[in-house]
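Q: How would the C-alpha cells look for this protein?
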Amino acid sequence: MKTRTRGGLLTRLERLECRVIAAHQRFRILYGHLKRLPREYQGERHVVVARQLPSQGDQEWVEFEELPGPDPNPPERPEPGTPTSFNVVFVEAYPS
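A: Here is the predicted structure in C-alpha cell form.
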C-alpha cells in the first residue's frame, strides 16, 4: 500500500511541475506590415523589425522590413524564462 501512495504522490508531483513550467513560459506576439524588397531582387533575404509602432489595445505593433543578404544574427535557442516571440507579418502582393 505504501508503494501505491508513493507512486501516486510522484505522479501528482510530476503533473504539478509541468504546470509550474508552463506557467513560467511567456510569449510575445508582434503584429506588423512588411516593407518588401523590389520584385526584381534575386537572392537571399531576411526580415527585421524596422521600428516600433504604437500599441493597439493589448497588441504590440511594429514595422517589418525585408533586407538583402543572410541574417547576420540568426536566432539562437532562448534561455529558460526568456519570452518567446511570435511574428504576425502582413504581406501585400506585388502590384501586377
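The chain has a mean pLDDT of 83.

The CA atoms of residues 21 and 37 lie 41 Å apart.

Upvote if useful.
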